Amino acid sequence: MNTNQKENNIEIIKDVLRQYLQDKGFRNTPERYTILEEIYQLEHHFNVDDLYLMMIQKKYHVSKATIYNTIEIFLDAGLIRKHQFSEKISSSASYEKSYFDKQHDHLVIYKKDSDKEIEEIIEFCDPRIQGIKEAIENAFGVQIDSHSLYFYGTRKN
Amino acid sequence: MNTNQKENNIEIIKDVLRQYLQDKGFRNTPERYTILEEIYQLEHHFNVDDLYLMMIQKKYHVSKATIYNTIEIFLDAGLIRKHQFSEKISSSASYEKSYFDKQHDHLVIYKKDSDKEIEEIIEFCDPRIQGIKEAIENAFGVQIDSHSLYFYGTRKN
DNA sequence: ATGGATGCAAACTGTTTGCACTACT
DNA sequence: AGTAGTGCAAACAGTTTGCATCCAT
Lengths: 157, 157
Hints:
The structure is a homodimer of 157-residue chains.
Chain A: H1 3-24, H2 30-41, H3 48-57, H4 64-77, E1 80-83, E2 94-97, E3 105-110, E4 118-124, H5 128-140, E5 142-155
Parallel strand pairs in A: 3-5
Antiparallel strand pairs in A: 1-2, 3-4
The structure holds a DNA duplex (25 and 25 nucleotides).
């Protein structure tokens, strides 16, 4: 993807946000667009602190409260996804931009003999999960809106 | 399952713990067995606070620190499993006894229009997940030790 | 007797909240 | 002008940690 396409994509994304804010009757604050831009420049997962520090470095004036608030909005708008990679409950949530990606799941690879230190996170997409989803919907009479699937393992030597 | 079988099961479980503690060179403290008994009397998911309050009510003298410590041991011994049902990161972890169960996954049903208030948690077991697991193992050259799969949805009306 | 395990309380961390101020609409 | 949204700091909740004491080995 070249630079022009990226710039173009950012505009699309901003339009999505603009539309969403309008539909919900929320305000068009500059902070929301700035945070969105930052997120869509990231290629990998990030957490709130990463994002906050990045923005401080770039001399943007945003508070963590606003980042948390904004992230809620982006989640609801479908612009980002939330993950909890570490099994440690007190570790922070991770996020990733989601608008241009298809839904995918994650393989968490731990370092060997390291008590759950994460070595790498690989994304994958197996269509069979759709079959399971439909089976569950039928079996229990529910409408499934989302799922999360994580595999945890270590590298074979 | 009748009462005799249950009592029998508890003895089996205690033996598993005894063996585990011995193998690891950990001590046979009464607290560990008491907490194990309490957990294995529970039919549903529980969190640390539930367990702590239950034990206080029954006049056992255990601290939360010990419960947290003990739960780590039980997890490692495979006697319990850990879950994070709520997508809210700051909500507590849930646990369940695991020794006699087969691995299963969870369907989290939210109350309609309730911003993620949980109505019910249903367990299911779809063998297709094994196929996905094996595909991932082969595709990425990893050994998968565990997985977690959650579906999130609402009841159909 | 020795040091692993416990109880207690204080510390910690990620997230949430209250409040005064700002700036969209 | 009115109020949603912001920044800041304090509060919060679940979990972890430090330390004195206890007890399994």
